[in-house]
């Protein structure tokens, strides 16, 4: 459509899936088209992420974002109005320049991202085309392999156990549609087994997974493996991924498993994790050591070449950290969270850099997410090949799954499949 310049900017305070305030933004274009986006927020945040602005004080327990909303309406509006949303990279650059800090902390990365997302959505709407098709990357667009939360601990479930997330990956599925149905069966069986083993399946964690209150991390792993078996799947059909979020477990250079009363050196901890990979069909491990333990990350990646070693807090969707990780082989895959970066174009550059270096990419939601579905389109358009948004319930999670189901139903996009996971070629050759 003609005249896709931004005519009006309007931000307001919305609520995320944890009931905490977040920044929402609508950009209205001169042609009448609107782009609307609501910014997500994380619970287990690394210190290298772009910096949100929160109000502090008594309102919402200090979590309010009225200052970030004001920054959009009173400062960024003057920066972006009159610009074409076709130049979303230029809009992001102008916003970054106006903030003037590397981590977007002066006005808040949540304010910057609200503009960036709304501009990206508005551009697609103005072009009357699916959002994913406005994104081009080094790989063709595809429907990503889902990595689905089944059981949760850590910061997502009141530290019921130490490991943050235990996920199912439908590696044998021929399509996304088939894979999601298979994972739903696994979750149902795990809920039944959790009740039998002293847990309570009615307790649901931040991302829709079952709150895994059992005696140990391995007890939860065993339950997931048994749930996969009970659902009728073998290891070549349904695999396991772990998000350890080890930064939250590090104390004085050691890994502290508070739920089990254990304190392990990094070498001992890696021995334990390596043992898990021998006993269970684990294909991906996220943040196996602390975010700044480059030596430990290198050691883990070298020791487990058949496993996808995924960096989240370790990389923080930060291009400089990703480049260092590529040089040092401190991982073989990058988790991509748009709000860690602070803009769509910053996250996009991380995806393209990782793919160009032979690393895999997993586009991820946050624990405090929203009903928006743009994340699914980003994963598809970028050719990221993997996506991680939570479990198969809670509407802020299913919004993304439902968008992918819709896109696959059209029939024009291939499903990424098992080969999307880093480490799988090594496993097959071994």
Automatic annotation (TrEMBL):
Transmembrane segments: none annotated. It catalyses: (2R)-2-phosphoglycerate = phosphoenolpyruvate + H2O. The active site is at 207 (proton donor), 337 (proton acceptor). Its cofactor is Mg(2+). Residues 140-423 form the Enolase C-terminal TIM barrel domain. It is found in: Cytoplasm; Secreted; Cell surface. Pathway: Carbohydrate degradation; glycolysis; pyruvate from D-glyceraldehyde 3-phosphate: step 4/5. SUPFAM superfamilies: Enolase C-terminal domain-like, Enolase N-terminal domain-like. Residues 6-135 form the Enolase N-terminal domain. Binds a second Mg(2+) ion via substrate during catalysis. Gene3D superfamilies: Enolase-like C-terminal domain, Enolase-like, N-terminal domain. It is an enzyme of class 4 (lyase). Its EC number is 4.2.1.11. This is Enolase. It comes from Microbacterium awajiense.
């Amino acid at each position: 459509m003609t005249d896709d310049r931004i005519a009006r900017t309007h931000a307001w305070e919305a609520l995320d899936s944890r009931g905490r305030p977040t920044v929402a933004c609508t950009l209205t274009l001169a042609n009448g088209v609107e782009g609307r986006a609501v910014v997500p927020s994380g619970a287990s945040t690394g210190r290298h992420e772009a910096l949100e602005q929160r109000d502090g004080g008594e309102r919402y327990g200090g979590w309010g974002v009225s200052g970030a909303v004001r920054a959009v309406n009173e400062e960024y509006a003057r920066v972006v109005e009159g610009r074409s949303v076709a130049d979303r990279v230029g809009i992001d650059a102008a916003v970054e320049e106006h903030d003037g800090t590397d981590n977007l902390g002066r006005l808040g990365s949540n304010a910057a991202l609200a503009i960036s997302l709304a501009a990206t959505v508005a551009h697609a709407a103005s072009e009357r085309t699916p959002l994913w098709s406005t994104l081009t990357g080094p790989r063709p667009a595809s429907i990503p392999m889902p990595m689905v939360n089944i059981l949760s601990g850590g910061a997502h479930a009141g530290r019921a156990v130490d490991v943050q997330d235990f996920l199912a990956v439908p590696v044998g599925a021929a399509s996304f549609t088939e894979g999601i149905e298979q994972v739903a069966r696994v979750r149902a069986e795990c809920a039944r087994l959790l009740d039998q083993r002293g847990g309570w399946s009615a307790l649901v964690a931040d991302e829709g997974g079952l709150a895994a209150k059992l005696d140990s991390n391995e007890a939860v792993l065993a339950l997931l493996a048994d749930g996969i078996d009970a659902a009728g799947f073998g290891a070549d059909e349904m695999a396991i991924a772990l998000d350890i979020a080890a930064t939250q477990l590090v104390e004085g250079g050691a890994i502290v498993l508070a739920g089990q009363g254990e304190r392990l050196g990094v070498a001992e901890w890696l021995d334990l994790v390596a043992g898990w990979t021998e006993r269970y069909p684990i294909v991906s491990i996220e943040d196996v050591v602390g975010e700044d333990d480059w030596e430990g990350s290198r050691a883990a990646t070298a020791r487990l070449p058949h496993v996808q070693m995924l960096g989240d807090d370790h990389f923080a969707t930060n291009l400089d950290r990703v480049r260092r990780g590529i040089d040092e082989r401190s991982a073989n895959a990058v988790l991509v969270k748009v709000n860690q970066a602070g803009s769509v174009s910053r996250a996009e550059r991380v995806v393209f850099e990782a793919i160009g270096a032979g690393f895999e990419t997993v586009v991820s939601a946050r624990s405090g997410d929203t009903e928006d579905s743009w994340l699914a389109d980003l994963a598809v358009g970028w050719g990221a090949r993997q996506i991680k948004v939570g479990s198969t319930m809670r509407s802020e999670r299913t919004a993304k799954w439902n968008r992918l189901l819709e896109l696959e139903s059209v029939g024009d996009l291939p499903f990424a499949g098992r080969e999307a996971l880093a480490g799988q070629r090594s496993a097959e050759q071994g």
